[in-house]
Amino acid sequence: MNIEIRGDSRFVTPLEQARASVIAGRYLPDSFCRFASSFGYGRFGKLLIIYSAIGDHQDSVFDQGLRVRGFMEEAVAEGYFEFEPDGRSSQVCDLFPFAASENGEYFVWDMRESNDGEYPIYCISARMGGMKYAAADLFELLERLSGDAIREVMGPGYGPLPLVFEGM
What pLDDT is stored for residue 106 in this prediction? Predict the structure, then answer.
């Protein structure tokens, strides 16, 4: 997959620094670390904002991820988080957000299920209206979002995203 890069991200994270980072007691997935060290913080496909791996950045996976996780916990507590078709309420404590679409979807790792340093990725629909399995790792997710499989992940109203990364 060849991703066109537009603009520079000032927030590229050195690979070893990203690999040493811990959230929720677990290391960041390797695909996210490789992405963060190659691309940094920015927007993929003119839609998906992938959080930074730099701890003191306002849109970091650490700060923004925790903020969004709070929204998810509130949605569960108030009874409006929908887990269908692929999620279970028992997963909510293990979900950790790392990206968001500009339309309100969130992308999360299920950190309970590790497979060779990766965590399954789910798409949480806008307004916590559903949870769908999206990919096994970040690069598979980007491939799926840039092809017809985006409709399976984000819904029938979406078309393939361009293979473009805009550094922010």
Answer: 96
pLDDT along the chain (168 residues), means of 10: 85 79 86 91 95 78 86 91 88 91 96 90 93 97 98 96 95
How many CA atoms lie less than 13 Å away from 109 in the CB half-sphere? 27
Q: Read off the tokens for 4.
A: 């066109």
Judge whether 59 and 51 are in contact, CB under 8 Å. Answer: yes
Task: Write out the two tokens for 88.
Answer: 């279970």
Structure tokens at 160: 């393939």
pLDDT of residue 88: 86
Q: How many residues comprise the chain? A: 168
ω into residue 162 within 30 of 0, thus cis?
A: no
Per the structure, the count of domains in the chain is: 1
CATH number (domain holding residue 49): 3.40.1580
| Helices within the chain (DSSP H only) | 15-20, 30-38, 63-77, 138-145, 150-154
**pLDDT score, position 26:** 87
Whose structure tokens read 């620094």?
17
Element (H, E) at 82: none
CA 81 – CA 148 distance, rounded (Å): 27
